[in-house]
Amino acid sequence: MATSERANFGSKIGIILASAGSAVGLGNIWRFPYLTGEDGGAAFILVYVCCVLFFGVPVMVAEFLIGRRSRANTGQAYDVLAPGTPWKWVGMMGVLAAFLILGYYGVVAGWTLEYTVASASGAFLGAKDFTAYFNDFVSNPWRPVVYMFLFMLLTHVIVVRGVKEGIERCSKVMMPLLLLIICVLVVCSLSLPGAADGLTFLLKPDFSKITGEVLLDAMGQTFFSMSVGMGCLCTYASYFTKDANLMKTAGSVALIDTSVAVLAGFVIFPAVFSVPGLSVDAGPGLVFVTLPNVFHLAFEGMPGLGYVFSLMFYVLLVLATLTSTISLHEVATAYLHERFGFSRRKAAIWVTSICTVLGVLCALSFGVLNGVRLGGMTLFDLSDFLTAKLMLPLGGMFISIFTGWYLDRRIVREEVTNGGRLRIPFFGFYIFLLKYVAPIGIASIFINELIR
Ligand code: PHE
After folding, report:
1. Cα–Cα distance between 29 and 260 in angstroms, integer?
2. Mind listing the domains of the chain with CATH numbers?
3. Residue 232: CB within 6 Å of ligand 1?
4. Distance separating alpha carbons of residues 53 and 426, to the nearest angstrom
5. Is the C-beta atom of 22 inside 6 A of ligand 1?
6. pLDDT per residue over 228-263, tens digit each?
């Protein structure tokens, strides 16, 4: 773990794109739109943006500074900064979360691959019962498993190539491509007839829609979408160079992440509203059931355009998902590699194997294992609930307490100002957010839900 042998990202833009690549994923294009659809549109988006500003960004900076200061993976970073204390469990929970998230995230990642193949083969051109298509596919005993496995392999191959050659290189190609595709899709979608209703839904808040449940959803979504609360960005930051500006990087990542989520809304809702009778609160099926309907109904008479739109959309999903799965994989791989002295390849093989097993269980929970339930939830739902709604916000709360209360203020200042070289005007405010606003805010949303 000596500094000299650790890998580093090669450039500042590489740092931003890799971190943004981790953040931008299914969370933005699949989860955010369906939560927005279920939780009332604009009002949810407003709450979400507040969570990003008051919880997401401060915790992201905290993870960055923990990672860069310790120059260790999440699982060991706390042992470097607070040796022999129980803080190490915050890091360990992060590693566990990485395995669990990759397990179920890999399933939806597999769906995106199948849908890309299907749209390339023209499956979304004619009229079809897309609900049945989706249900048949996800409950099939082997097809989702195969696609999940293919996605894991793709992730594996990139991670094995290392931080600079694998992760950074890939992010530098995929992220700009992703931004380009989403902009083209926004233009297409806004030009559909009926798009205005979709815009109203996204832009005109109805505050009566904000309930305790909506707050919890928005908070969980913030941590999930920004990849914070489990040390994913802590592991990435351990590869940051000394001159990276942590505050600015966090600001850029938050901006890119939120923009992509909102842009995904601008792609999906105008399209959905342009087809009478389709519902926006389709839940997780929104981009897999509702959108294929849009592709063929909204583009009736111009099937060529519908074909291109659908193919581009699912390619977008695959790209976004892949840059996120590699970051999850890296958290676990770096831990096994550095903690147990495994070679990077061996560590990666372990991670891929364990996550594939979890992935198979989650994939089958839509079909043959649907009856296996814990607390009324399938294994897939349980993984989502445990990680996005519990572990990430809890992790975020502990990370802010660790940085705001436990860690020597000098260390925090040194990291944030790069040893005094950067002027950070709101340092005091930042500490205030970490000490009070984030922990108290997160705790009260939790308590509010528990006593409901
Ligand atoms: N942020 C990713 C997304 O939005 C998911 C993720 C969560 C990735 C946690 C890494 C760590 O899809």
Report:
1. 8
2. 12-451 (1.10.4160.10)
3. yes
4. 14
5. yes
6. 999 999 999 999 999 999 999 999 999 999 999 999
